[in-house]
Amino acid sequence: MVKERGAYKGRKPSINREKVLQRHCKGVANAQIAKLLGIGRATVYRILDEQSNSEAEVSS
Description:
The protein is an all-alpha fold. It contains 4 helices and no strands. The termini are far apart.
């Protein structure tokens, strides 16, 4: 019922995806990005993978 009304929206993102993507484009290593932003390496890889998947969908 609550979801149907749109009252439940889930947790707000705790990391800035743009910061990860910007640093990656500048050539910063994934492990270094994780350390700089205080997140896990797996999170960095997940963000980059999601980004590449969304780009592949757009180009097809």
